[in-house]
Amino acid sequence: MFASVGVHGPELSPTAALVLDVLLLGAATLLLLQDKRMTRHQGVLLLSFVAVVAVLRVVMASLPNVQPVTVAVLLAGASLGARRGVAFAILVTMLSNAVLGDGYWTLFQAAGWSLIAVVGSRANLVEGDRLLLGRATMFAAVLALPFGLITNMSLIGGGVGLAQLPALVWTGLPFDLSHALGNVVVMLWAGPLMLRMLLPVDVPDATAIQGVEADVHLV
Amino acid sequence: MRSTLVVTLLALVLLPCASASITVSGGYVSTAPLVGEDQVLIRSSGTFDGTAPPMVRAYAENGAVRWVIEGPPTAQPDMADLVHVKAGEGPCGSWPDHLLIAWSSGLLEARAWGTGLPLWQANTTVETWGLTATPTMTDAGLLVTTRTGIELRCPADGTVLEAAETGLGWRNPASFVNGTAHVGDENGRLWSWTPGSPASFVDLGGAIRHAPVHVNDGLLVHVQVDRASTVEWLPLGADGQPQEASQVHRFPSGASPGMPVALSETLVAVADFSGVHLLNWTAEGWNSTRLTSSSVQGPLRFEAGHVTASENGLNGGFLAFDVAEGFAGVTVPSNLRGYGTAPPVVCGEAWLLVKDDGVVVLEPEQGGPLCPLSPASIPAPEGTSVDRSPAVWTLSLMVAFLAGSTAAYRRGPLHGLRWASPFLLVALVAMMPALMGWWVEQVPETQTEPVWDETWPEAWRESQVVVFELPNETLAVGGLDPRPSVLESTLAAADELGVSIALEAHSLGTWVTAVDGVAADGWVYEVDGTRPMVGPEAFALDQTSVLVWRLA
């Protein structure tokens, strides 16, 4: 995918980069705030998982295109719904890119993973609190290709034109294969664990108990 | 039990990935690396079939190639050491810090020390071969032994100040003692020449293939004769000319002598097929001590209190003797084996070891703070090191098959995939560089507009053209011999134009980071108007391609 060191896509000025970051962060916050079903406990859990996955992505950055984020986002969408899934995708992208490098491509990575979260929310990957592992693995593998296509679009405008997009996609296919295989490994070995981390423990919500004054909620 | 097996298998798979060596590709490396403050220079002879030219490469931190020089093509190996000439001045002018290269093609050239850019060039006589002796810097100037004689040249511009004809020589540097140069030739003649006077000789028979060594106000010469050798010592007269060889100081020794080295006023180390001997001069003759019976046919080196050499054999290693410890043998801890003549060279706190096949190892790996190849280890196999990835991915695929089939048999296909997939991923990662190289060649051809500048000579149409679009000018060159890849073509063009190229090794190959000192945001390249999506090492060039480098 990013086979050419030195091919970045359009360079953003500091102001434009700041605006992009604010927009993305704003979108994630809005999506979380609009989700009235989410409790404080669930919010803390989600943010903790964002940190864990971001660290994982940074640690595994040296492996060509092995992205644990894809599986995490897919499962986040499947277990938490599209809104929280998309917010999760945006936050992980921004947090990990703060270490790996932030730029124009952040928008496309966030968009790609958001799409995966939405697909995850529609794909019926979770039955009760059990992960349908075979189905989830298949989706994780297949979604690597559209993700690669979306992120390749970020190179257009930085000296690369639309005419070169087919060549770009073609030469990136081995990396997309690496991404797909990495997703399979992560899903098969860590998928059920990730899902357990995302699904909340059955703690009664304070607001559901009569006579109890609730403290600050995220809703 | 199962998890232990997995861990063991993973360790066996990943173990070959550990590496701490450079492989200098193309030809033989038979001379010692030259260690500077911030770079290590290594020269390689061209291949006998002409597929690779002679080269000099400058390596910096982590084994990154800083610059490369190609020498004129020749079938003769390059035996002369690289010489670092410090800045100075003399009656003929002043000169900067520079590198002196004596090519076996007969070309003598001076190159800027930091960048490799040419300073001056001079052609010398060639009879089958040209320069094979290491030039020497003296107070009177640059002493250069050519194929047919000896010359004193100005270090500032290479012009000949004085010259004299001697016999035909090979690997025969000169010594300069009290204003007189002494050099041997292939007929066993020891020539002596004081610049401004005719040269004279003493006939010793055999062949002399090293610089005469000044010992106890005389000259030691290790003469090669048929299947043996003889060490001779000739006292120097008041006029600085060698007298008749001393009979009591005649020391018969083994075949194929190496290049001896003086350790003190009276102590010399000599080497040949029979081993390494210490010869201590006394009036009654030599007191000799055999240090080792290992065959050494290259130069002996005296550095950092050690005498070092390379064993020249199929399983030859390296030798080191500690002078302070009574010449006790020192183990050079390395698995590097093979034919070689370059002795170990001190680099920081480590030894730099080289064998003929071009494998260079820093032992121990860290090198210490003063070695230009530090601080980290010399890079892993991806760029220029020994490629172990075929072994890694082959083993990974085998293990994937075994683990996956066993798990599938016992618990179903999903478990089979679960156990096979990590090893498949390891295999894919290991073969990724090779896969990318092959995959790029499968890219469908697209029609592009030909890129041609009408101001270019018509003769360039049938050749590769390389263009560098610098901030203040555009440089173009064509008509060079076609090169198979973008990187090689770039380096050849840069050498022709006299611009420097800075390279950096990445996990997916070597990249150009600066052209003629201009780095900015990096450099990108286009071939025939199209920007390839792979590195310059991986992209194959046609014989009539137009390659353009411009700032990103």
Describe the structure.
- The complex is a heterodimer of chains A (219) and B (552).
- Chain A is built from eight helices and two strands, in the order αααααββααα.
- With 219 residues, chain A is an all-alpha fold.
- Chain A has one domain: Orthogonal Bundle (Arp2/3 complex 21 kDa subunit ARPC3), CATH 1.10.1760.
- Chain A has a two-stranded antiparallel ribbon.
- In chain A, a hairpin with a 2-residue loop joins strand 1 (126-127) and strand 2 (130-131).
- Residues 1-8 of chain A have low confidence and may be disordered.
- Chain B is of the alpha+beta class.
- Among the domains of chain B are: 2-11 and 388-441, no CATH class; 196-295; 458-551, Ferric Hydroxamate Uptake Protein, Chain A, domain 1, CATH 2.170.130.
- Helices cover 14% and strands 35% of the residues of chain B.
- In chain B, strands 20, 21, 22, 23 and 24 form a five-stranded antiparallel beta sheet that branches. In chain B, strands 1-35-34-33 form a four-stranded antiparallel beta sheet, with no helix packed on it. Chain B has a four-stranded antiparallel beta sheet with strand order 2-3-4-5.
- In chain B, strand 36 (465-469) and strand 37 (474-477) form a beta hairpin.
- In chain B, helix 2 runs antiparallel to helix 3 (413-441).
- The two termini of chain B are 54 Å apart.
- The interface between A and B is medium-sized, with 31 and 32 residues.
Question: Looking at the structure, what is the overall shape of chain B?
Answer: globular
What is the quaternary state of this protein?
Answer: heterodimer
Q: Ranges of chain B with pLDDT <50 over ≥5 residues?
A: 1-20, 377-385
Can you count the beta strands of chain A? Answer: 2
Largest beta-sheet characterization of chain B: 5 strands, antiparallel
Number of helices, where a helix is a run of at least 4 consecutive DSSP H or I residues of chain B: 4
Structural class of chain B: alpha+beta
Largest interface pair: A-B, 31 and 32 residues
CATH topology of chain A: Arp2/3 complex 21 kDa subunit ARPC3
Please, what is the average pLDDT of chain B?
Answer: 83
**Number of separate structural domains of chain A:** 1
Name of the CATH architecture of chain A: Orthogonal Bundle
- What is the helix/strand order of chain A? HHHHHEEHHH
Strand content of chain A is: under 5%
Number of helices of chain A: 8
Strand content of chain B: 25-35%
What's the arrangement of strands in the largest beta sheet of chain A? Answer: 1-2
Helix content of chain B: 10-25%
- How many strand segments of chain B? 41
Give Rg of chain A in angstroms: 18 Å
